[in-house]
């Protein structure tokens, strides 16, 4: 495992960075959608590409040598801005906005547009797996038993229409470093439709277990 | 189910559109990575956002009313440029470059960078599920028995390092509209490491089955 990275920003610096980061990421999400759906001419596509390359060059003038990783700093907080499902800086993330309930369950909301399509008009089956894996993982964490995915079993009840979606997950009561979590994905476009059910087993590797205890991790900070 | 859309471009028009589309999508992939990894100042982030919004506005001057869908046209070909895993116009797609082998199995390659991170330095467990779902689905199709995901069972053998990856899948021999497919995801960073194994059941809904026969679908065209 890669060592967790110690946060290098103060709480004030981090707060000043959050808003502009979120707005920038949202603009890229919108761009991803536009690139899929545009019917403009080839010369407009070429001009768009040149402008995007210029922006990317500017952003890369000062950058991390690798991926964002997961950063630990302020007591009980964790920052995973690069995460594919919930990362504040990751335009691939819908993002899934997950809330941890007091009873240890979690509920997440997102709206999935053209970029998450598999069959025409429907979410890619793997995208629903992606959202559920994150939600189930967070539910294990919310229950005080965080871990990495060991198994994930998905049952697809019906195709999931693109649009607003809710994901729910909760750990099965138990103890130890192996946690069973169940969840489901519900589309909200035409009333509530349960589209996918999931059951996962999450296991915390010993090395991470010891590190997490040492750092007194409790809640995530994205 | 949404009806398949009849292709409206000629083969020449489509060919002229492919190169610029692929380059534009690649530029957005690079931008997604840069947004995650940039350490530039807030004013650079703001300026980048304004430029991106301008590009998006231009692309949206002429666009599809909804998602891209799946288009049928030239005999035996299918175009899914919006697909989350393989779509030519979808910057979320790594893309996974899948080849159909003569024996009905498929093999896909991709390189996953910072945008596909879950645990620090590793692929998000849900991302590996996303790639496997697509590969297994294509293997069902390659075996002549296409379908939608009914169940997908994933076993995570070890964390998958970010970097180059291979995905393999093949249908279990059989007949009818229910197809079992097995596959695995192998990272290539430090030699070959089998990280995730998958088994899926794919079922073709009757309506799609009839439509596909009518259209004589054989191979996909992205």
Task: Please give a quick description of this structure.
Two copies of one chain form a homodimer. The first copy, chain A, is an alpha+beta fold.
Description:
Two copies of one chain form a homodimer. Chain A is flat, with a radius of gyration of 19 Å. The two termini of chain A are 21 Å apart. The longest helix of chain A has 27 residues. In chain A, strands 4-5-7-8-9-6 form a six-stranded antiparallel beta sheet, covered by helices on one side. In chain A, strands 1-2-3 form a three-stranded mixed beta sheet, with no helix packed on it. Chain A is an alpha+beta fold and 222 residues long. The first copy, chain A, has four helices and nine strands; from the N terminus they run E-H-H-E-E-E-E-H-E-E-E-E-H. The relative contact order of chain A is 0.14. Chain A has a domain of 120 residues: Thiol Ester Dehydrase, Chain A (Roll). At the A-B interface, helix 1, helix 2, helix 3 and strand 6 of A face helix 1, helix 2, helix 3 and strand 6 of B.
Count of helix runs of chain A: 4
Give average pLDDT of chain A, whole number: 90
Q: Determine the CATH superfamily of one domain in chain A.
A: Hotdog Thioesterase
CATH architecture call of one domain in chain A:
Roll
């Amino acid at each position: 495992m890669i060592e967790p990275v110690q946060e290098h920003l103060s709480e004030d610096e981090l707060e000043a960075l959050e808003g502009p980061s979120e707005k920038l990421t949202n603009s890229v999400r919108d761009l991803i959608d536009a690139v899929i759906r545009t019917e403009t001419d080839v010369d407009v596509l070429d001009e768009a590409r040149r402008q995007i390359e210029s922006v990317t060059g500017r952003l890369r003038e000062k950058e991390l040598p690798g991926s964002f990783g997961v950063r630990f700093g302020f007591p009980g907080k964790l920052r995973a801005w690069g995460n594919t499902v919930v990362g504040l800086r990751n335009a691939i993330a819908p993002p899934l906005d997950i809330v941890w309930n007091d009873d240890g369950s979690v509920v997440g909301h997102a709206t999935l547009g053209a970029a998450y399509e598999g069959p025409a008009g429907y979410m890619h089956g793997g995208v629903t797996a992606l959202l559920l894996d994150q939600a189930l993982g967070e539910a294990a964490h919310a229950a005080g038993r965080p871990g990495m995915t060991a198994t994930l079993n998905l049952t697809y009840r019906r195709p999931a229409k693109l649009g607003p979606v809710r994901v729910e997950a909760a750990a099965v009561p138990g103890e130890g470093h192996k946690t069973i979590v169940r969840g489901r994905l519900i589309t909200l476009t035409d009333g509530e439709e349960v589209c996918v059910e999931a059951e996962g087993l999450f296991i915390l590797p010993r090395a991470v277990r010891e590190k997490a205890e040492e750092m007194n991790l409790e809640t995530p900070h994205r």
